[in-house]
Amino acid sequence: MEPSLDRRRFASLIGLSPLAGAIAPFLVLGDALAEPAHEKRIGDDAAHNKLAAVPDLKMMGSEQIAMLLYPGFTALDLVGPHYMFASMMGAKVHLVTTGADLAPVPSDLGLAIAPTMRMQDCPADLDILFCPGGLAGTLEAMKSAAIIDFIADRGSRAKNITSVCTGSLLLGQAGLLRGKRATSHWAAINTLDAFGAVPTHERVVIDGKVITGAGVSAGLDFGLQLIARLRGVNYAKAIQLQAEYAPEPPFDAGTLKTAPPAVADAMSSMLAPFETMVRTAARPR
Question: I need a labelling partner for 22 at 20 to 30 A (CA). Which of 47, 86, 87, 283 fits?
Answer without folding.
Answer: 47
